Amino acid sequence: MAQPLFSGLRANRQRRVPILMYHRISTKPPAAPSGLRLTTHPDHFRMQVKSILSQGFTPITFSQLPSLLQSPTPIPKSVIITADDAYEDFYIHAFPILKNFCCPATLFVPTRLVDLRRREEDTYCSWSHIQEMSRNRISIGSHTVNHVHLSVQNDNQIAFELNESKRRIEDRIGVPVAEFSYPFKFPEANSRFVARLREHLREAGYRFGVTTQVGCARSGDNPLLLPRIPVSQSDDEPLLMAKLNGGYDWLRILQRAHKHLFAHR
Fold first, then answer.
1. pLDDT for 98-110, tens place per residue?
2. Under DSSP, is residue 7 helix (H, G, I), strand (E, B) or coil?
3. CB-based contacts of 242: which residues, under 8 Å, 6+ apart?
């Protein structure tokens, strides 16, 4: 069933922008069942981009988000497309599709993994790939240096992961980096850490940050801790449209309750 039971709880479109979260755009089947949630076949990705456009959604950049959410008038249907990890398959498969449809997107880069190019079975974009994409409507954001769990790092380590990754990307592409994506599940129940992270992001000079919290970006959300909508190969057009239209925002309530419950066990 594409439309969830509690779709009536969805937010008013005038105050909501979905931020889509992709990971792998690959022709290879995932090695583990859990990988199905993180993998989208290029044919499905093309269908999803076409559906977004045909249903009247306009892909935008993060820099356009504040003015839209703060507008006193009804806003156009907008969406932000993001991808984490900078796997090489994004350059091979997703980038040509986005370029063909003139769609902006944001790619979040773990800088050390890009420096290494390979880790175990994974191959990452090269800096030349990233430079090319940056010149063609793909914004490049930070995904830390080492793709670590920031919640178990001390303040110096957190500052290094945020500042050094930003510096490294800016040095390579020659463009200021304003966006950050939090690796792994976001520990929103840990309010002390969330406050620390928010301050570190602000001090490092980031303007926007995205998490794995489920939901659309709304007026009043902290721009450094924005929720996203996960998308994968399992999203056909009706399911994707349900997500874009806010029909899955209620899952954020369950997600938050689950994290708070297990955080105190």
1. 999 999 999 999 9
2. helix
3. 2, 3, 4, 7, 248
What is the model's pLDDT at position 118?
Answer: 86
- Mean of pLDDT values over 61-73: 91
**Per-residue buried b or exposed e for 70-80, using 16+ beta carbons within 10 Å of the residue's own CB:** eeeeebeebbb
User: Which amino acid makes up residue 55?
Assistant: Q
Yes or no: say if 227 and 188 are a contact pair by the CB < 8 Å rule.
no
Taking the CA atoms of 173, 174, 175 and 180 in sequence, report the sign of the dihedral they define: positive
Structure tokens given for 256: 């938050």
Give the dihedral of Cα atoms 53, 56, 59, 60; nearest 10 deg: 160
| Run of H or E residues at 165 | helix 155-173
pTM above 0.85, yes or no: yes
Among 132, 134, 71, CA closest to 108 = 134
The tens digit of pLDDT for each residue in 166-183 reads: 999 999 999 999 999 999
